[in-house]
Amino acid sequence: MRVHYLRSTGADAVSAGSEKRNSRLEAAWKTLDPTVMTVDELLMFHERVGQMLCTKLQSLSSKVRMDQEKLQAHLSKLRSGLITVNEPELEAPTKPARRPYPTVYPKYRSLRNPSLTWAGRGKQPRWLLAEMKDGKTLSDFLIDKPTNKRRKGR
Asked: SS3 letters for 30-41?
């Protein structure tokens, strides 16, 4: 028993892999040359395709059956009043946790009201704009950074 295939280039295989299902089928059919195959080879090929179809259909039908059972169970719970439409049994997927961001300390402090601070990010606050209209500059509002009292000894 000999099965003859047409040779395909590597580019054909790459392009066939990146296309949709229909184009994959066309590419696979192009690599097969049934005109060169004998009748016995064609019959064996037919049997193998039939077996593959049976296994795929069985796996699909089992998946459909499982989904149908889940839906029936959910529907029976809805009918019995155990759950309501607004409170689904299935939980919504949660969002992944955000990565921790460093704490942003204030850089500027109001001269009139020391409780008003600004970190220097985003739009300038109204209190800063109002105090800058009086002729002050942004550097006048800078908060002094604490000096490091400890020094490494050499």
From this structure: HHECCCCCCHHH
Q: Which helix (H) or strand (E) holds 57?
A: helix 39-80
pTM of the shown model: 0.34
- As beta bridge partners, residue 118 has 108
SS3 of residue 5 by DSSP:
strand
Say which residue the tokens 């089992």 belong to.
Answer: 62
Are 136 and 130 in contact by the 8 Å Cβ rule? The answer is no
The Cα 65–Cα 39 span in angstroms is 39
**What pLDDT digit, counting tens, does each position of 118-141 carry?**
999 999 999 999 999 988 999 999
Q: Model confidence at 83, in pLDDT bands (50, 70, 90)?
A: confident
> Helix (H, G, I), strand (E, B), or coil: what is residue 101?
coil
Closest CA to 121 of 135, 101, 136, 99: 101
Pairing state between β 117-118 and 108-109: antiparallel
Gap between the Cα atoms of 17 and 6, Å rounded: 18
